[in-house]
Recover the amino acids of this structure.
């Protein structure tokens, strides 16, 4: 895609709208981004989306900001990344600036909390949906190790509150080791099958 | 120099809050309540509540709020900028590495270990939100009366339309908020 004003404007508008709807914690940005950038625009594919979240999760700072930076960089280089970061930060900046002047009334307003309670259930549905889709994608590779990692990380994070940094380091290491062993084995097998014949 | 103090505090919050969201809370608390006394404990509790009710990352919400309290709109701008600056630098570096080397075998192996982990972490966060929406206080109780039926109905309907018609999640969230409001106005729940 051409890196012109219209791309930068789109990057800004899309991230601005997505950020304005990230109620209920950073992960909500994942289903929203996936719908916009994977399904509607086809700017990135499903795997890249997961990689993007992996990188965002491994870096300091809010996931929503980090994931926006990744998309922005991918589509429009460093200027693109700065624009998407700006688009993501602007909604909370504006909203909190306004609310800070009457935050007690806002916090105690029954109508506001009714909307929030409803939205919370909606957010739960949206996240559940994206987990089903992404989980299916990971399991489609028919790797026993992936299924095992998914289950054990869930138990570690949900029940034992293991720090995300450890999860990332350990899973990266397991992936690296198992991949290296598998490729060694494939190489070895290929050599024995060909009977050690020299390459032509 | 209040702006410099704000900048340095928020920069540290942005730099050390790895793992997102609630991991950052103790760090924010230390910087703005204990170290500088910019907010009282009550105000800090308020800002967490407000961060939950408004969109956007909790660290940014807190940074903006503290900035405005301490030094008005310029303070908010300085705080928010400082809070995202570490992200910008580090993520851009990682993005460069990712897009340069992602076709390398080693990178592919690492990512294949991270992908299932990321799905599991999203699932864990999702389950937390689900329980919070269905049960008051987020703790499971076995009596049927304690389940928020409106929330349950919203969840089931939302998931159905998402799976069946691949509806935009933004509409689902907007609709869910409207139903929550309607339920309160009509039946007071």
């Amino acid at each position: 895609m051409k890196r012109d004003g219209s791309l930068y404007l789109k990057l800004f508008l899309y991230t601005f709208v997505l950020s304005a709807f990230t109620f209920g914690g950073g992960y909500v940005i994942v289903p929203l981004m996936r719908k916009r950038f994977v399904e509607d625009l086809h700017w990135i594919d499903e795997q890249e989306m997961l990689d993007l979240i992996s990188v965002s999760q491994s870096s300091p700072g809010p996931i929503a900001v980090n994931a926006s930076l990744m998309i922005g960089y991918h589509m429009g280089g460093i200027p693109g990344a700065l624009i998407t970061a700006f688009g993501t930060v602007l909604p909370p900046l504006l909203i909190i600036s306004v609310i800070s002047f009457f935050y007690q009334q806002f916090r105690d307003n029954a109508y506001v909390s009714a909307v929030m309670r409803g939205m919370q259930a909606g957010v739960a549905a949206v996240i559940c949906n994206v987990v089903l889709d992404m989980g299916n994608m990971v399991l489609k590779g028919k790797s026993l190790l992936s299924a095992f990692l998914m289950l054990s990380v869930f138990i570690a994070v949900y029940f034992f509150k293991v720090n995300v940094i450890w999860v990332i380091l350990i899973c990266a290491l397991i992936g690296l080791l198992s991949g290296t062993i598998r490729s060694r084995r494939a190489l070895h097998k290929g050599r024995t099958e060909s009977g050690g014949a020299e390459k032509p | 120099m209040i702006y410099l103090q704000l900048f340095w505090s928020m920069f540290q919050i942005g730099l050390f809050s790895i793992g997102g969201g609630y991991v950052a809370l103790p760090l924010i608390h230390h910087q703005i309540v204990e170290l500088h006394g910019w907010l009282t404990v009550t105000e800090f509790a308020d800002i967490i509540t407000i961060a939950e009710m408004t969109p956007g990352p909790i660290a940014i919400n807190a940074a903006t709020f503290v900035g405005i309290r301490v030094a008005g709109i310029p303070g908010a701008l300085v705080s928010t900028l400082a809070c995202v600056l570490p992200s910008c630098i580090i993520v851009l570096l990682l993005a460069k590495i990712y897009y340069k080397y992602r076709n390398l075998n080693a990178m592919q192996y690492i990512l294949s270990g991270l992908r299932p982990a990321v799905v599991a972490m999203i699932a864990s966060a999702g389950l937390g939100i689900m329980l919070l929406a269905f049960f008051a206080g987020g703790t499971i109780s076995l009596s049927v009366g304690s389940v928020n039926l409106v929330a349950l109905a919203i969840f089931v309907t939302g998931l159905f339309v998402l799976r069946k018609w691949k509806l935009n999640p933004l509409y689902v969230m907007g609709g869910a908020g409207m139903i929550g409001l309607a339920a309160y106005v009509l039946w007071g729940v």
Chain B touches chain A through 102 residues (CB under 8 Å). The helical segments of chain B are 2-16, 25-35, 41-53, 58-101, 105-134, 149-165, 169-187. The two ends of chain B are 49 Å apart (CA to CA).
